[in-house]
Specification:
The chain has two helices and six strands; from the N terminus they run αβββββαβ. The chain is of the alpha+beta class.
């Protein structure tokens, strides 16, 4: 849905090698499903400019490894201006990612970039994973700063991200496609 946050998805196992005709048929089905999901994401991103002046894109990135394919669900959008007190013409961009990695479990990430400043929040399911990620945050901060980015916030919490109030909440949330003609 256009206003819903990204959702973590479990890893898809790798299919063992099989006969070529079966492999091609399986590949065809996977491509059809991927294209259908892409169309749904494109439809959810194609709101009229007068309804949503801030662009928003929804997509999924599949990362295939030896153990299977991990899906990263991503929402990228320009933050709404909060009034005239903003300095300069720079607007903030926000990326929200969700993934379910077997080593870490469900992971939510919110990254906000404005000019040279970046703030990053991680949400994980367990305290053990939070501690593992918290140990890696200083290295992440060092890497970001080495790219001339000023890190304003960098933290990791247990739980799920809060659902921010959206300026377009009062828009009707009906279906994108009417299947009744």
């Amino acid at each position: 849905m256009p206003n819903s946050p990204p959702t973590p998805q479990a890893r898809t196992p790798v299919t063992p090698m099989m006969h070529l005709p079966m492999l091609l048929e399986g590949l065809r089905h996977q491509v059809e499903r991927s294209l259908a999901r892409l169309v749904i994401h494109q439809l959810s991103s194609s709101e009229r400019a007068e309804e949503t002046p801030n662009p928003r894109w929804l997509l999924e990135l599949a990362l295939r490894g030896e153990q299977g394919a991990d899906i990263i669900h991503l929402r990228l959008e320009r933050e709404a201006r909060r009034g005239q007190q903003e300095t300069g013409d720079e607007q903030a961009w926000k990326a929200e990612l969700a993934m379910d990695l077997p080593e870490l479990g469900p992971l939510h990430v919110r990254i906000v970039v404005k000019g040279d400043s970046v703030s990053t929040h991680f949400w994980v399911k367990s305290e053990e994973v939070r501690l593992r990620l918290a140990d890696a945050l200083p290295q992440l901060q060092k890497n970001l700063e080495s790219r001339q980015l000023q890190v304003t916030i960098l933290n990791c919490r247990t739980g799920t991200p809060p659902d921010p109030k959206r300026p377009d909440e009062d828009q009707p949330n009906g279906p994108w496609i009417d299947s009744h003609a």
